[in-house]
Amino acid sequence: MKLLVIGSGGREHALAWKLSQSPRVRQVFVAPGNAGTALEQGIENIGLTAIPDLVSFAQKEDIALTVVGPEAPLAEGIVDIFRSAGLKIFGPTQKGAQLETSKTFSKAFMQRHGIPTAGYASFDQPSDAHDYIDQKEAPIVIKANGLAAGKGVVVAMTSAEAHEAVDTMLVENKLGEAGSQILIEDYLEGEEASFIVMSDGRNILPLATSQDHKRLLDNDQGPNTGGMGAYSPAQIISPTLHAKIMREVIYPAIQGMAHDGEPYTGFLYAGVMITPQKEVKVLEFNCRMGDPETQPIMLRLKSDLSLLLEHAVNGMLDKIEIEWDRRAALGVIMAAGGYPGIPRKQDVITGLTEIMRHQAATDEFHVFHSGTTFGDQSKNEILTAGGRVLCVTALGENIRLAHQRAYEIADKIHFEGCQMRHDIGYRGMDTHDK
């Protein structure tokens, strides 16, 4: 069969790479893909991004199934359009994707269905937002209502930071339409984890747990980013907590969407805060796999992803089980200079050729590309082309060993202005691993 993956980042590289390993899959197309997907055996990039063009391509090439990576096409209604054309696609409808595309929709949904989350208020007038901050005081969280590519959340530890975030979004309009309405949420103490499941509208299949690192710098300092690294499994999610998240968050969300007349199909990502009292609070829902969580999760997945997706689009997730590598996986992001602001581009990446030769012969590690493109073909140049450039991902008997291997590989790759955290996985390194 032939499959199509929509997107151009590290998440899509990891999904396409995993799908291409299936003996059932003849060809994986990625639209538009990146330099990394172009270099993988069995994967081909196509330079299409407009939804009508993607529909035509899927029909012409007899694509058996399409999987959507990023949130933007979901917000545009790609699932509704593909389905109306008789094409199989895995992802939520445009209405279902509101769980991510509108924070106010998501919060109201959680309140309606009894899903635990932080208290909040929404604003579109700066003066009202400033008054609310003065009443509540910091720490406090400011969120853009719409999609802001991972940059719409400010965890303000001081009132001055909170007021500045309000002005950035509502006065200076730096996030555009996404920040024309904001939410101000209560600050939650605890440890975050990523809990991702597949849903066919009725049945739920949980994926391996993971933990992302949002801040740019070591020790969780600096501005929020789209994610500077992730590891799996998340040590904080015990079997008891896993059951609690399924019971209090995932089942109510999937059942709530069905109750509201919009059965949810696709990946559902719950970013959860585990409080010191082991309570669970939902920070956000995303309607797709996380990036960079996908990279370590795919490295640990032993099951055939194409088979899982086929069961999902046919409403049969209750008929399949999922198998994981017992080892831990950890991915570290190598980001461009200037990220998360305006990133440097067109810098030559060195050290990749030798590493890619080695990774072809092993399943122990993989370098997934995010923001990359080709330079001078005669020199086999690969250039930076975005904020997050690469995700170096490795397996290990425990998180410490996965961390060690990933950084050994990352240290052999170089480009001008590279930014990289050196403490990815620190929360998951048990004392006996140190």
TrEMBL record:
Q: Which reaction does it catalyse?
A: 5-phospho-beta-D-ribosylamine + glycine + ATP = N(1)-(5-phospho-beta-D-ribosyl)glycinamide + ADP + phosphate + H(+)
Q: Does the keyword Iron-sulfur belong to this entry?
A: no
SMART domains, alphabetically?
Answer: GARS_A, GARS_C
Which GO terms are recorded in the biological process aspect for this UniProt protein? 'de novo' IMP biosynthetic process; purine nucleobase biosynthetic process
As cofactor, the record names: Mn(2+); Mg(2+)
| Residues annotated as domain ATP-grasp | 107-314
Pathway involvement? Purine metabolism; IMP biosynthesis via de novo pathway; N(1)-(5-phospho-D-ribosyl)glycinamide from 5-phospho-alpha-D-ribose 1-diphosphate: step 2/2
Keywords annotated in UniProt: ATP-binding, Ligase, Magnesium, Manganese, Metal-binding, Nucleotide-binding, Purine biosynthesis
Read off the Pfam families from this record. Answer: GARS_A, GARS_C, GARS_N
A molecular-function term among this protein's GO annotations: metal ion binding
Q: What is this protein called?
A: Phosphoribosylamine--glycine ligase
Source lineage: Bacteria, Pseudomonadati, Pseudomonadota, Betaproteobacteria, Nitrosomonadales
Q: Which gene encodes it?
A: purD
